[in-house]
Amino acid sequence: MLSALSFLNTLSSYAANGYIRYPILLEGSKQWCESLLDSFFIQQSSRFTKIELYGDLTISTYAAFPIKSALKKLGQETDCLVIDISHEFNANAINAVCGTVIGGGLVFFIRTDDSSLPTVVEQWFSQYIEQMVSLKETETSYELPLIPRLKDEAFKSDAGIHRSSDQERAVKAIQKVVTGHSKRPLVMTADRGRGKSSAIGIAIAELAMERSLIIGVTAPLRNSIDEIFKHAERVASLNGLKVESQKNQLMINESQIIYIAPDELLRNPQALDLLCVDEAAAIPAPMLLSFVDQYSRMVFSTTINGYEGTGRGFEVKFKKQLYKKRPNTRSLEMKHPIRWSNNDPLEAWLSSVFLLNHEEQSNSLSIDTPMTTIDYRCISVSQLVNQDALAQSLFSLLVSAHYQTSPNDWISLLTDPTLRCWIGIEKSTNKLVCCALLSKEGELDLDIINAAQLGKRRPKGHLAAISLTQTLCIDEPAFQSSIRVMRIAVDPSYQQRGIGSKFINAIENNYKAKGVDYLSTSFGSTAELNHFWYKLNFHFVRLGISKDKASGTHSLLAIKPLSHRAFSWISIGNDYFTTSFPEQLMSTFSSLDYNDVLSLLKGVSFKEKLSPLINKKLETFALGGLGYELLQYELRYFILSHLSALALLSEAQKKLAVTKILQVKQWSVVLEECNLIGKKNAELQLRELIKSLLTNLQCKS
């Protein structure tokens, strides 16, 4: 048996010899924890040179930082961390900063006697203490864990270019994308710490040695690509190449490597010899597929289990669609860690406590396979805490469906009293089929509502209620009660069976019976999602002006009244969308894809009839008279008054009607987007589609 200090010194040598990292929990008074670590760092001063502290701590000469600042440390390396979790448990930040600790390092978690963590977080955390090394002030002797295996021989020297055979294989595969046939993208997946980002950097530098290239690099966050630039510069310098570095650009010999944000890349396509997308899982599938259409040589790289919490959704959603577009896509998985050994205790603990052991969602069920009854119900926090298998299944399902799902969402679900969790369990198999996160909103005081309308206050947690009261300038949406659907996910093997719709209907019936006034939801607008919510009789109210930088989509706010009180003001929301959205199509939303526009126009309902004079003008236009520029108002008015008739047109005609008549794009843009030759031909096509609509409408009347 050893004293605490001797124990830590021995544990440190275990970590170094095995090239592994230990999560260590110190429990006791703040003074005891700080004093123990102060002595330990003095004795280990030659081994630990990069030590970082997070929380309210005073240890030697080390500065302590707020835990939220840890998210800025991505791409860095540390030897040792000390994190005070006594009063704050920021799951995203903890998980992110732990990824910076290299093999041989230690991570200390301090929980002092005056800990004020929510009880439910304490309960959840306590379930995984047995996976940690635990030291308590009240104990006088400690037992060491088993001696780990020595550092894996598969590791290569840190001084070498490639630090594992996995990484060397990845570098060659990336280079093959440039040197081989076009339209054969590479998809690289890996758990954290496998060296995928550095592999991209190495490959770029080695390519730059042989030829002059323009290489684009994109990622949802700018700091995500720091590792790529760092390793490209390192390898180039080792090979004596000329290197010039700027914030978003790296010049190696005659080659140019540039960072471009995803939304900017979509808005302004570049002439690139290679496009590398890092952390691709955090970019929604529609945006990634747009890149595939634009670039013939691409590398997609993403973390499967990491603080991003998004990799499985990438596996399920994107790769399936990618193989349809590019059948010769190649996949590569990097399994061997390079920053620590296999069976790393810290990695195992993080995966357990933050639910990162994401399950593969099978797609083996046929659409014709019969299903038994599904039980839809709301579950309590205590059920989640006490059933870790259900918790893992639920979180895996959310991750597979929503690119923004992160470990902090799990902690919020445990601690936020306004959140509700619903699940759907197939009775015969007891399998989790679907889940949803809901938020209770509204019922605010009038003084808060009035302040919110003036932009002076924005109460936390009332996203839809406040947005509605501000947009519509009425009190009711924030005064009445609401349930907002934050996330909904259906197991991929159970999709296309109407389960999502039945799930929402079950939620609706439950809260309608409880007297809730309306349901709301806010989501990244796509044609598919717009159609889903419209079919459920949700009313579109507002499309967000700004695009989400990562998803490239506008946020759509939709509501469904449940009570007579809510029905009394729903017409105001309908009128707002009907009048504002068509006008915005000519300016703010002029670049929206025509399919997205058509799906949104389902929420528009013009009721005015056309005058005989306007009808005559349209008939004249259809027969070759007048001209588009003389009839812009009448043409828009006609299309908006007969939106349902657009279904009778061909896809080419729908696209032309949206881009020229509703979005009023320049002729040059319309010609390019609609694959038409010459303005005269385009105007002829416009006349034909108007003639077709008039003929169909006359047949119906």
TrEMBL record:
<dbReference type="GO" id="GO:0051392">
    <property type="term" value="F:tRNA cytidine N4-acetyltransferase activity"/>
</dbReference>
<dbReference type="GO" id="GO:0051391">
    <property type="term" value="P:tRNA acetylation"/>
</dbReference>
<dbReference type="InterPro" id="IPR016181">
    <property type="entry name" value="Acyl_CoA_acyltransferase"/>
</dbReference>
<dbReference type="InterPro" id="IPR024914">
    <property type="entry name" value="tRNA_acetyltr_TmcA"/>
</dbReference>
<protein>
    <recommendedName>
        <fullName>tRNA(Met) cytidine acetyltransferase TmcA</fullName>
        <ecNumber>2.3.1.193</ecNumber>
    </recommendedName>
</protein>
<feature type="domain" description="Helicase ATP-binding">
    <location>
        <begin position="177"/>
        <end position="322"/>
    </location>
</feature>
<dbReference type="InterPro" id="IPR013562">
    <property type="entry name" value="TmcA/NAT10_N"/>
</dbReference>
<dbReference type="Pfam" id="PF08351">
    <property type="entry name" value="TmcA_N"/>
</dbReference>
<keyword id="KW-0819">tRNA processing</keyword>
<dbReference type="GO" id="GO:0000049">
    <property type="term" value="F:tRNA binding"/>
</dbReference>
<dbReference type="GO" id="GO:0005737">
    <property type="term" value="C:cytoplasm"/>
</dbReference>
<dbReference type="GO" id="GO:1990883">
    <property type="term" value="F:18S rRNA cytidine N-acetyltransferase activity"/>
</dbReference>
<keyword id="KW-0547">Nucleotide-binding</keyword>
<keyword id="KW-0963">Cytoplasm</keyword>
<dbReference type="GO" id="GO:1904812">
    <property type="term" value="P:rRNA acetylation involved in maturation of SSU-rRNA"/>
</dbReference>
<keyword id="KW-0067">ATP-binding</keyword>
<dbReference type="InterPro" id="IPR027417">
    <property type="entry name" value="P-loop_NTPase"/>
</dbReference>
<dbReference type="Pfam" id="PF05127">
    <property type="entry name" value="NAT10_TcmA_helicase"/>
</dbReference>
<keyword id="KW-0694">RNA-binding</keyword>
<dbReference type="InterPro" id="IPR007807">
    <property type="entry name" value="TcmA/NAT10_helicase"/>
</dbReference>
<feature type="binding site">
    <location>
        <begin position="488"/>
        <end position="490"/>
    </location>
    <ligand>
        <name>acetyl-CoA</name>
    </ligand>
</feature>
<keyword id="KW-0808">Transferase</keyword>
<feature type="binding site">
    <location>
        <position position="528"/>
    </location>
    <ligand>
        <name>acetyl-CoA</name>
    </ligand>
</feature>
<dbReference type="GO" id="GO:0005524">
    <property type="term" value="F:ATP binding"/>
</dbReference>
<dbReference type="InterPro" id="IPR000182">
    <property type="entry name" value="GNAT_dom"/>
</dbReference>
<comment type="similarity">
    <text>Belongs to the TmcA family.</text>
</comment>
<comment type="function">
    <text>Catalyzes the formation of N(4)-acetylcytidine (ac(4)C) at the wobble position of tRNA(Met), by using acetyl-CoA as an acetyl donor and ATP (or GTP).</text>
</comment>
<feature type="binding site">
    <location>
        <position position="167"/>
    </location>
    <ligand>
        <name>ATP</name>
    </ligand>
</feature>
<dbReference type="InterPro" id="IPR032672">
    <property type="entry name" value="TmcA/NAT10/Kre33"/>
</dbReference>
<dbReference type="InterPro" id="IPR014001">
    <property type="entry name" value="Helicase_ATP-bd"/>
</dbReference>
<keyword id="KW-0820">tRNA-binding</keyword>
<dbReference type="Pfam" id="PF13718">
    <property type="entry name" value="GNAT_acetyltr_2"/>
</dbReference>
<feature type="domain" description="N-acetyltransferase">
    <location>
        <begin position="374"/>
        <end position="563"/>
    </location>
</feature>
<feature type="binding site">
    <location>
        <position position="339"/>
    </location>
    <ligand>
        <name>ATP</name>
    </ligand>
</feature>
<dbReference type="GO" id="GO:0002101">
    <property type="term" value="P:tRNA wobble cytosine modification"/>
</dbReference>
<keyword id="KW-0012">Acyltransferase</keyword>
